[in-house]
Amino acid sequence: MKNILVIDDDLHIGNVLEETLTNEGYGVIRAYSGTEAVLLLSQVKPDLVLLDLMLPGLSGEEVLPHIKGIPVIIMSAKVDVDNKVALLLGGAVDYMTKPFYTRELLARIAVHLRTFDSFAKSEILTFEEIKLNIDTHIAQIKDVEIKLTRTEYAILKLLMQNQTQVVSKSHLLDHISEDTPDCTESSLKTHISNLRKKLRAVNGKEYIEAVWGIGFKMKEE
């Protein structure tokens, strides 16, 4: 059974979500404030999080950086595009504007759980000619093996896991810490530059691109 953490202080919305999710066969965990959510996340690891933004205690924006390795769907009445973009770049996988249709929410939950499961179970990440073995930490382009440092591996892994998205610098620094402890804001640019050179040296192709003022992403042809 997949467990979903619902972080919302609105009792009515929370109750409706709990009933709907339970009927679909999900286990449901509830948190009613940002502070409670952070405490709960230190004790349990749900399979997916539904996160409201307007919360007592810590706001949803403040809770989001505490959620690592779990897909997060934002639920909010805020419709500002810049706000949505910031949250998606900050680690959320989706954003639903209240009010929303429960059928659409259930569909998005199913898609994100399926996508996350496929990444979690796969030992090989692929992007065009690049293959990255997350068990052995070995990267290859065609038959050429590329030696990566721990930090370069962690960066490439995160970019390949989010290959359709721009990954912000802050998101990179927050999420690669599980694979490497030695990357700082000042050294990140150097690590990425070295990684790009190693990949480019194999066949002259540029696989990682910088998105000015935001972060980095895998470069599609």
Please sum up the structure shown.
This protein is an alpha/beta fold. The protein has helices at 11-23, 34-41, 60-63, 81-89, 102-121, 150-161, 169-175, 185-203; strands at residues 3-7, 27-31, 48-52, 72-76, 94-97, 124-127, 130-133, 139-141, 144-146, 167-168, 208-211, 215-218.
Indicate the proportion of strand residues: 15-25%
How many DSSP H or I helices? Answer: 8
**Major sheet: arrangement of strands:** 2-1-3-4-5
Residue stretches low in confidence (pLDDT < 50, at least 5 long) are: none
> Any idea what the shape is?
elongated
Largest sheet: 5 strands, parallel
Structural class: alpha/beta
C-alpha termini separation: 39 Å
Please tell me the overall pLDDT.
87
Helical content (DSSP H or I, runs of 4+) = 40-55%
* Tally of strands: 12
SSE string, helices as H and strands as E: EHEHEHEHEHEEEEHEHHEE
Radius of gyration: 19 Å
Question: In words, what does this structure look like?
Answer:
Helices cover 42% and strands 22% of the residues. By secondary structure, it is an alpha/beta fold. The strands form 3 sheets. The chain has a 5-stranded parallel beta sheet, sandwiched between helices. The relative contact order is 0.10.
